[in-house]
Specification:
six-stranded mixed sheet, 6 strands, about 200 residues, about 20% strand
Length: about 200
């Protein structure tokens, strides 16, 4: 089976790990071999959290520089920080809504200009799907559903050997009952947003 390597980067509290686990369980439902690993920074303080997910035939979860087939960034500066994992064929998906680091919030740092960030990311991306996932999460009913919005965008690319139905089955069975409908709605909004961005990019 073809190997597909996915890197997901976020800051603590954005739901990266839940998104990764949903993908992992969806792969198991689809009878697709999957291996996962996680790197935790100072997540409780907004530090980086990175997940590596390898679908298909592989004995390692290590994704070296230039090996990622897909990069999903929950926060634009973290997306840029991870571009070394990409190559000329990598699909990049990024949320354009920044999460300000603690140092910025207390006036000890400056967040990079968002337009410059997007330009730098675009220069590295063969296929960039960039939109404000936070706005769509709020539209779905909970700002914390950013992870589900970006899952929808990821599945829309059709780069993974799992389907929308596989992912939604896991969302319905593994997320808290009170948030199931919000999460499904967020997933659908992300799927539609990625579809719309792709049409514009390919026009």
């Amino acid at each position: 089976m073809k190997t597909t390597r996915v890197i997901i980067v976020a800051v603590g509290g954005q739901g990266n790990l839940l998104a990764s686990r949903v993908l992992g369980e969806a792969a198991l439902i689809a009878d697709v071999p999957v291996r996962m690993s996680e790197i935790h920074g100072m997540a409780q303080r907004g530090g980086v959290v990175e997940s590596s997910i390898v679908f298909g035939d592989s004995e390692s979860t290590i994704i070296s520089d230039g090996e990622a087939d897909v990069l999903v960034g929950f926060e634009p500066s973290e997306t840029l920080r991870a571009v070394n994992k990409c190559n000329s064929k990598t699909i990049m998906i990024t949320n354009l809504s920044p999460t300000m680091p603690f140092t910025v919030n207390i006036g000890k740092g400056v967040y990079p200009d968002l337009e410059v960030l997007q330009k730098l990311i675009r220069e590295k991306a063969a296929n960039l799907i960039a939109f404000n996932a936070t706005t769509l999460a709020k539209e779905a009913g909970n700002v914390m559903a950013v992870n589900m919005v970006l899952l929808g965008a990821l599945i829309q690319t059709k780069t993974l050997p799992i389907s929308t139905d596989h992912v939604k089955t896991v969302i319905r069975t593994r997320t808290k009952k009170d948030f199931v409908q919000i999460n499904v709605t967020a997933f659908d909004l992300g799927y539609s947003a990625a579809q719309a961005v792709s049409k514009v990019e390919n026009a």
